[in-house]
Structures are given as C-alpha cells and as structure tokens.
Design brief:
D-Maltodextrin-Binding Protein, domain 2, globular, 9-stranded mixed sheet, alpha/beta
Length: 385
C-alpha cells in the first residue's frame, strides 16, 4: 500500500464541479477568450503560474523546459475544451495570452465525449475548423485518434512525457495526471487497515455500510472500464455486485464523496486523488487521508491531454501551444492549482504525494478506455446505473 504523507494545508479556494465529466462537467457552454488589447507583452514569471498558500511555500527547485526557451505563440487557435476544469484551463490560457499579445484562443467547452464525437464527425465531413482538442480523459483522446481525426505530434511535443501517457502512433500526449485513490477517514481506519487490493472492498466485513461511490461519474466509469479490460467482465460484475452488497452509499461525484469521508458520513470511498487534497486545503483539520492500491484498476493513472486535429492549417502554432503546456511553468500550474500529477519529471506533485513513477498502476493502454459502452451495459445489468 502506498500512502500519502501528511502535509499541513492552508485555506485555499478551489474550483470543483459536479456532473458526469471526469473532472466535473460544464456542458453546453461556448465562449471566446479575448487576447490582450495592448501589444505590450506582460512579463509572466513562474510565480504567476504557481498556486499560493502553505502548500507551495517549500516547493523545491524545478527543472525542465521554460516558456522562454521555446518559440513564441503568435496567431489564433480554435480549441475544443472537454471536461469540467474549464476555469482552470482558461486561467492558464489567459496567462499565455498575457505573455504573448499576438496570441489568442477561441474556445468551445462541452463534455469530452460530446466533443470527441463532434470532432470526428466534422473531420469525416471535411468541414472541421478546429485546431486543437484538450480533454480531461485519455478515452476521448483515444476515440479521436482511432477515428483518424488527430494528426501525429512532433517529437519535441512528446519527449517530455513518459510513454505510458502518450497515445498510440503519437496522436495525443498527456498534460496532467490523476490517480485513482481510496480516501479514508482517519478516525475510522488507520493506514495499515486500508487494503492494497481493490477487490477487498467488495468482500471484507469491515467495509459494510462504510463505502461511498459515484457510479454516474465518468472517472468512476473509466476505472470500471479498466477493471473490465484487465480482469474480465465476470470478475468486474462480481466486484460491482459485492460493493452493492456492502450497502454502499451513492454520491453525485467524487468531490462529494471526499467531503462525506471527512464528515464521517462514510468511512472510505473511491475517488481521484486530488479531491481529498482539495478537502484538506479548505479544511486543514479534516480527518481524511488517501491510500493507493497496487497493480489493479483501483490504482489507474489517467491523464488529461492534447491532440492536434487532422486537417488544421495551424499545425505549427498548435504544436508550439502543446509544448507550452509541458513547460515548467504550465506543469507547476497543474501541480499547485489543480493538484494534478505533473507529466514532466522536473516538477513534483504537491501534498506529500508519491511521484507518479512511485505509484503501482496497472499495465493498460489508456486509449482502450474509450470503449465505454460495454462498461455502461454491465453497470446497467447489475443495477448500478
């Protein structure tokens, strides 16, 4: 079992959203980001990208490529932004726009799966005017890639990121990671009492009336998809049924699960790692910690990522933009403002988290998470949905 080292947290305000997207949901929203009116560039430093408060006061020296070491951004990109952390992504984009007064992004925000379908239909129809797709989950990126709607990324847009977090044939690349975890109430369980086997939660009596889950949440569905791929349909069915028989409590999303764990409403839950950190950040004395299982679907590490759309006339600008997302500045933004796992080795995660290469995720092609329908069918069959 890998446990998170305890770190003192100050009070900070963080975005969170409910709904069905992997990091929340902002459905049906479109908008345009305005570039700077002034042609004078704003000097943007690392501190502009870094979060504030006690959590980041002792950040170590960071290493990697900085934004002033790669080509400037100049021109206009049309971006499809999938998922629920739209506010955070737009904040990052606005920072880049401030630094590059001749750079502007037009954007559309909808759930990742909806935009993936839209992109493939537009490319098939030959009328796509979109340059770039940012998605909160690898499954949607994989869907776009597998349907021939993403172009091959250049070597310099791929190299900073470990191979498990790149798409097949280099059609997409991860920009921020999230690990499945077990948030638990420290008044109910000690670290040693939390199993390192995800299947234990479906069979051990100590978890009767103690578990929270959010089966309509896309992050949970991706996790169940990983279990189905790794362990097979029947074993996944047994796990879902076993957790149901534990009299599991149902929540809208994993932010609510983590707060319920902190409140003692449930003792443990299934959630992406950063939700517990956000609870700790806003409630420093809350009795909540997280643990990680090992080598099973419960230890899945998924990613938000970027794909350049097939047929774009602005491939070079889109490539430079992707490279900016993998700079020290942008990765520090994801680490300290979103509590995500950075994708480059020179930027560590926050909050005493183990580094991503210290976790024990299952061996799985993240692109296969796009095959969601068999999972939803199974969940309906056993009465979870």
């Amino acid at each position: 079992m890998i446990m998170m080292k305890r770190t003192a947290f100050g009070r900070r305000r963080f975005l969170h959203a409910g709904g069905a997207a992997t990091l929340g949901s902002l459905a049906g929203c479109t908008g345009i980001l305005s570039g700077n009116n002034s042609k004078e560039p704003k000097k943007v430093t690392l501190s502009d990208f870094r979060g504030s408060g006690p959590l980041v006061e002792s950040r170590p020296e960071l290493s990697g490529t900085h934004i002033d070491e790669i080509p400037d951004l100049s021109g206009t990109l049309t971006l499809y932004l999938g998922g629920g952390e739209g506010g955070l992504y737009l904040e990052l984009i606005e920072l880049l726009e401030s630094h590059y007064p001749d750079f502007k992004v037009n954007h559309r925000i909808e759930p990742s799966s909806d935009l993936a379908q839209r992109i493939t239909q537009e490319v098939e129809g030959g009328d796509s005017s979109t340059d770039l797709f940012l998605s909160v989950d690898a499954g949607s990126l994989g869907f776009v890639a597998e349907n021939g709607a993403a172009t091959k990324l250049s070597k310099n847009a791929l190299e900073p990121v470990p191979k498990p977090f790149r798409g097949k044939r280099n059609r997409w690349v991860g920009i921020a990671g999230r690990a499945r975890s077990i948030p638990y109430n420290t008044k109910k369980f000690s670290a040693s009492e939390v199993p390192s086997d995800i299947f234990a939660f479906a069979r051990e009596n100590q978890f009767k009336n103690a578990i929270g889950w959010a089966p309509t949440y896309e992050a949970f569905q991706a996790f169940v998809t990983a279990m189905r791929i790794i362990d097979g349909r029947e074993k996944t069915r047994q796990w879902l049924t076993g957790v149901q028989n534990q009299s599991v409590s149902r929540f809208r999303d994993e932010w609510f699960i983590s707060n319920a764990v902190a409140d003692g409403e449930v003792d443990v839950g299934f959630a992406n790692h950063y939700y517990a950190l956000r609870v700790q950040a806003s409630r420093p004395k809350a009795p909540i910690e997280i643990a990680f299982t090992k080598n099973d679907a419960g230890a899945l590490v998924n990613v938000a990522g970027a794909a350049i759309i097939q047929g774009t006339e602005k491939e070079q600008l889109a490539t430079n933009f992707v490279r900016h997302l993998l700079t020290v500045e942008a990765q520090e933004f994801f680490a300290t403002k979103a509590f995500a796992y950075p994708m480059i080795s020179g930027v560590p995660p926050v909050g005493g988290l183990p580094r991503v290469d210290e976790l024990a995720p299952p061996s799985i092609d993240l692109q296969k998470l796009s095959n969601l329908e068999p999972t939803l069918s199974l969940m309906r069959e056993v009465g979870v949905l």
